[in-house]
Amino acid sequence: MTTMRASPISFSRMTYRLHDTVVEWASALPLSIVQLASRIAVAEVFWQSAQTKLASWPVTLQLFAFEYRLPLLDPGLAAIMATAAELSGAAMLGLGLLARLASLMLLGVVSIIQIFVYPDHWAEHLMWASLLLLILSRGAGVFSVDHLVSRRIRAGG
After folding, report:
1. What is the C-alpha to C-alpha distance for residues 88 and 102, in angstroms, rounded to an integer?
2. CA–CA gap between residue 35 and residue 71 (Å, rounded)
3. Total-model pTM
4. How far apart are CA 135 and CA 34, in angstroms?
5. Residue 35: which residues within 8 A CB-CB, separation 6 or more?
6. What is the pLDDT of residue 4?
7. Which of 27, 40, 103, 148 is most deeply packed, by most CB within 10 A?
8. Angle between helices 122-138 and 99-112 (to 10 degrees)
């Protein structure tokens, strides 16, 4: 019984064709879909975090006083600022309203969490930061209030 082996040349050609097909397919994906998915993913993380803080404000204040302990900020003020930034940033990102500003604000939140609160969770923070940097650098995309406002301004009214 003999077995047939694919020659290295044909396997190589097949691999290149597969690679080219995948690259072609991925290149056809509209950036606006990626931007929308990025906005929704990050907005959900921060929206849920803010909802958790609001659900039990006394626990939130204790966390900021004893676990998070940000330097130079009163724990009550830090809790209010963090919750406001998460709520407003998440809502802005979800709508695509001033999305670059929201991204910048939430990048600040991520930086504070990374540096002062949970430095060992860098991989998760890097993922959030990567999505926020995409939005900061490329904007909210076609499916956003920012895009609608921009079109209206360019149309002259």
Report:
1. 8
2. 34
3. 0.84
4. 10
5. 134, 135, 138, 139, 140, 141, 143, 144
6. 59
7. 103
8. 160
Contact 84, 46 (CB under 8 A): no
| Residue 5 confidence (pLDDT) above 70 | no
Q: Do residues 107 and 132 make contact, with C-beta atoms less than 8 angstroms apart?
A: yes
Which residue from 155, 150, 154, 146 is spatially nearest to 36, judged by alpha carbons? 146
* pLDDT of 2: 58
- Residue 97: the pLDDT is 98
For residue 112, give the amino acid letter: I
How large is the average pLDDT for residues 135-154? 96
Distance CA 44, CA 31 (A): 20
Q: Is the pLDDT of residue 156 over 90?
A: no
Q: How far apart are CA 75 and CA 69, in angstroms?
A: 7
- pLDDT, residue 12, reads 84
d(CA 18, CA 12) in angstroms, rounded, equals 10
- Burial (0-12, 13-18, 19+ Cβ within 10 Å), 42: buried
- Over its C-alpha atoms, the chain yields an Rg (Å, rounded) of 22
Q: Position of tokens 């991520």?
A: 110
